[in-house]
Amino acid sequence: MVRDDRRLRPEILIVLGLSLGQSAVYSLVTIVARLTASQPLSQQTATLNPSQSVRPYLDLTYQLLGILFALVPVALALYLLRSPRSLLGLDVRRPWFDLGWGVALGAAIGLPGLGLVWAASALGINANLVPAALPPVWWAVPVLILSALQNAILEEIIVVGYLVTRLRELGWRLPWVIAASAVLRGSYHLYQGFGGFIGNAVMGVVFALFFIRTKRVLPLVVAHTLLDVVAFVGYALLPREWFSWL
């Protein structure tokens, strides 16, 4: 059903401006800064999950608050959708479907993704990625898992569930809906370099198509969580020399 764009267009801009649209703008500024720096992009570092304080429990507090408040735009989007469970497939009526497809999508995206990271690094179009830079404290792994879950919930509900639903209600054609979701996903990863943009845009196409076909966002949350847990926790726990090939 086509909805009144006088309300939906400002709503979309507000939701994105409070969340991943804002991240995309900052990411665009960051990549411009990287490209105009004296040091080549391939010699720069993009750090995910950095430490926030040298005082461990203050660091933990900042980490948990960051995770909590990053999910507020998700609550806003779900509130505005009014009936998110039926629209987005956030119910748990099909747990094995959600889990099975989540694992399958995670594997389908993750394995080629490693090759893309290597290729982007070899071509010099990506910064060096540090997926986790927390100190070796007892809470590091639980926080990294929570961070992975927060990323998955935020991105899949906002960029796929919410945005795809709203753009379709505005009467956009499916190719443009998919392109908008994919480009947005790629754009807020531009701080990593052009490899990050390309890889995440391709992931965005796959995830948008899956949601349009199944009307379920939970498998995407599962897949994204698995991808980030492997990247964050794996980097934090495995020996650094294992990553030298990247």
Automatic annotation (TrEMBL):
Record keywords, A-Z: Membrane, Transmembrane, Transmembrane helix
Residue span, CAAX prenyl protease 2/Lysostaphin resistance protein A-like domain: 138-229
A Pfam cross-reference name: Rce1-like
InterPro entries reported in the protein's UniProt record: Rce1/LyrA-like_dom
Keyword Zinc: no
Transmembrane regions: 12-33, 60-81, 101-125, 194-212, 217-238
UniProt keyword annotation of Transmembrane helix present: yes
Protein name per its UniProtKB record: Membrane protein
Lineage: Bacteria, Bacillati, Actinomycetota, Actinomycetes, Micromonosporales
